[in-house]
Amino acid sequence: TLPCDVTLDAPNAHVIVDCTDKHLTEIPGDIPTNATNLTLTINHIAGISPASFYRLDHLVEIDFRCNCVPVRPGPKDNVCTRRLQIEPSSFSKLTYLKSLYLDGNQLLEIPQDLPPSLQLLSLEANNIFSIMKENLTELANLEILYLGQNCYYRNPCNVSFSIEKDAFLNMTNLKLLSLKDNNISAVPTILPPTLTELYLYNNIIAKIQEDDFNNLNRLQVLDLSGNCPRCYNAPFPCTPCENNSPLHIDLNAFDALTELQILRLHSNSLQHVPQRWFKNVNKLKELDLSQNFLAKEIG
């Protein structure tokens, strides 16, 4: 018998199969063929192959998080020493698949042969330290990409996180990109102009250049917090920028962001907030300047 909970969401025509935390070591073979949403989180499944989803042609969402959590953030009583293995073409026949969550599996790279129907891909808390254009070529229809927490104090990588210059060039539908907690030292170049949300917080970016966001005129949310952090009494390992200097933001850096509604500059060691930053940012609704050095500026 299937060790999972099956529920029917009739209004949305969804058949939801939930196998969360069932101590599974392989994907069950008797999943209903009309399943649309499959959750396999917090198990010990070591591999995914094309046979894993055989006859499950109706899947629109697969949640496969935390089957091999990286050692430091993972459970101490059940350390995973063999990263999740994904065989080529494991997902390619799933022509209705829209959302795929593979966070917390010690993956080394972005899986290949993903179906063109995919709109959301989440790969947080893995061991992906390099993003190449060739890894993203199949993902032209992707709208949401989470790549955070692949290289930070709780999941250290001990290498420099690298992003190829035009890695995101072909992602012509991308709306949300998260690269938080990744040891990134500069804003990635050639970001898709379709972006509405960009999360770059808790990296090691010391300087925001004049042209870093110059093509992002649809951007509504920008989070740059925790770059050049204010480390006094920080409850986590904290490395300030050289000489405790603030995040340097060019006076014209935000000029193109005419649709920006939320700007987060929390913990950037800022001492001044130049009015010039906001010259073209006329739709701003939320500005986070907490945990900076702005006492004199406010006074």
UniProtKB/TrEMBL annotation:
The compartments listed are: Endosome; Membrane
Question: GO cellular component annotations, sorted alphabetically?
Answer: endosome; plasma membrane
The record's section on Gene3D superfamilies has: Ribonuclease Inhibitor
Q: Could you confirm whether the keyword Transcription regulation appears in this record?
A: no
- Tell me a Gene Ontology molecular-function term this record carries: pattern recognition receptor activity
> Cross-referenced InterPro entries, in alphabetical order?
Leu-rich_rpt (IPR001611), Leu-rich_rpt_4 (IPR025875), Leu-rich_rpt_typical-subtyp (IPR003591), LRR_dom_sf (IPR032675)
What superkingdom heads the lineage?
Eukaryota
UniProt record, GO biological process = canonical NF-kappaB signal transduction; defense response to virus; positive regulation of interleukin-6 production; toll-like receptor 7 signaling pathway; toll-like receptor signaling pathway
What are the record keywords, sorted?
A: Endosome, Glycoprotein, Leucine-rich repeat, Membrane, Receptor, Repeat, Signal, Transmembrane, Transmembrane helix
One matching Pfam family:
LRR_1
Protein name from the UniProt record: Toll-like receptor 7
Which organism was this protein described from?
A: Stenella coeruleoalba (Striped dolphin)
